[in-house]
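Morning run. Coffee first, then this:
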Amino acid sequence: MKTLYEGLFIFPETLDDEGLDQALTRVKEELEKLGGSIESTTRMGKKNFARSMKKQKAGLYVVVMFNLEGSKIDAFKNRLKLTTNVFRHQFVAANGVEEVATEA
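And here it is:
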């Protein structure tokens, strides 16, 4: 059974609009390989971090609502690490009850 998740993705601030589009396309492709689907995407823009992380001072934030089987979340996390330009990510079940994954 697929579950609706809210995913917060942080991409490097060095990406331009075209680069961010390509990165989001790669995330969508990896999700679809696992049988998931994207419901909506909201770009929140560039936000400064409270403190530097891995020599980065800011990132491009994107919230993605997606459906995926709960048993495939770990596989999705691993694919994000290997094949995409995601700096950090966090997934939460849309009902807000449990947090299922954190940073890359």
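The beta strands are 2-12, 37-53, 56-69, 88-93, 99-101. Good start to the day.
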